[in-house]
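Z., the sequence and structure:
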Amino acid sequence: MKKRILTLASVFLLAFSSNAQQVEFEEYDLDNGMHVILHQDNSAPVVVTSVMYHVGAKDEQPNRTGMAHFFEHLLFEGTKNIEKGAWFKIVSSNGGNNNANTTDDRTYYYEVFPSNKVELGLWLESERLLHPIIGQDGVDTQNEVVKEEKRLRVDNQPYSRLLENIKIHMFKKHPYKGTTIGKMEHLDAATLDEFLAFNKKFYVPNNATLVVAGDIDKKSVKKMIQDYFGPIPKGKDIARNFPKEDPITKTISAKATDPNIQIPAIVAAYRTPSMKTRDSRVLDMISTYLSGGRSSVLFKKLVDQQKKALAVQAVNLSQEDYGVYALFALPQGDNKIHDLLKEMDVEVKKLQTDLISEKDYQKLQNQFENRFVSSNSSVQGIANSLARYNVLYGDTNLINTEINIYRSITREDIREVAKKYLNPNQRLVLEYLPEKK
């Protein structure tokens, strides 16, 4: 009887979360091509103003890597109406906070304000788009900022070049072979005209999605948006035609060294499809099954039971055009990295051969339901999701419906996707080793 009560409770919770998490939004386009998404939530006096530009590291020239990330910094320098260094002061003095981030696929800027400052947030973002000051002084200042960031986050951090070394071997044609932070010599060599050209090409309203979410009055916000963003001229359409990768048909073996590590690592990486595909969502579930928490298959086996590994992880790094599925492990004591790989391969082979148990399958479904609820638990998270689903997936309503894709994934789907993508002849095996001194 107790078991039945728990099952009914789970069903009730699932139904409740499905209804409670429905995110209402309105979207439309300005005449200049800017896409606008509004989400009204008057439960707290907070508003998020954000803009996601469809430009990332993959849009850079091969000899000018790091440009997209550089602009994330550069466009806080100031505008014709905002003095150099005043941006953050304006935000903080009005009770807000702000930030930005860049990936291979997009760049995202946002402010979080008390809701009575929504117009200030819109003005700031319109200034970034309409009146940026891109001069040599600002370029030089931010060049030093980015170099310091690279020193802190890459040059002096253990295992920080791991992904870079994976991508170099996984992508021979597609620009995903680069890194988001780029090469400093490329930024040093860039001319002011090149920075101006990058801004003119990508920082245009028809390459941007504006999201205003929170405690708003939509009628008045629409007028503000029209006033601040409507007059901005439309830019040229951006054509993207990136080269396709040839299939990997035999194991790629590689080594890389890192001066900041003492313990070697082993990586098995597989090229996988776009995050927009159903298969990519199945791979999300596979990675969670293998290493999502202390009760996961690989953690229990290699860390808890066999005590062969200090850490183990399976991760689906999905992106707009391709993804990378990676298995990673650090050995404990005298255990060998290739022995860890063999043990991970055993578990992948089981996935390809047998159906996971009903208990493990239900656990996966519960984990993804929980992630769905958590991702929409704050207005800031909702604003980010609305922008991301529109820009990278072309379907804003995935904020409500993507969970249905995960719900529809079966145990058979998990087995078939593992068989399709996670094979030894389709992967890179990377030995990531301490640098000899």
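DSSP finds 16 helices and eleven strands in the chain. The longest helix spans residues 136-155.

Let me know what you think.
H.
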